[in-house]
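User: Sorry, folds how?
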Amino acid sequence: MGNIFLMRQFMKGIPTELDESAKVNGASDFVIFFRIILPLITPVLIVCGLFSFVGSWNDFLWPVIVYTDQKMPVTAGLLLLQDVYGNYRMIGQLMGSAILAIIPTLMLFFFAQKYFVTAIKLNSGIKE
């Protein structure tokens, strides 16, 4: 739901003059979308993809319900380091596993950091 709102707000920030000038120059709707609009919305598409990945990566409840054997995602596997009463048996292994679970998200954030800033500006068609 948040991705839809982010895309909507970003698309509302694109000036309609870009579409109109492309139509005056004889561009079809297909050309307008793929040559003008799509390059402008690339940062917000990357951010939405990153948000979706982080949401799936950090999902806990569904993997715990579905997986019955020892093979499960890292974030859901952290539950296996608890005993029946919820006490942590191996705190060192738990902390190491939690750091391993955080690393992919941090790496993606550092690589996509410039797209976060661009996607949040919401004035996509105007150069500064």
Remarks:
- The chain has one domain: 2-121.
- The mean pLDDT is 82.
- The radius of gyration is 21 Å.
- The CA atoms of residues 79 and 85 lie 12 Å apart.
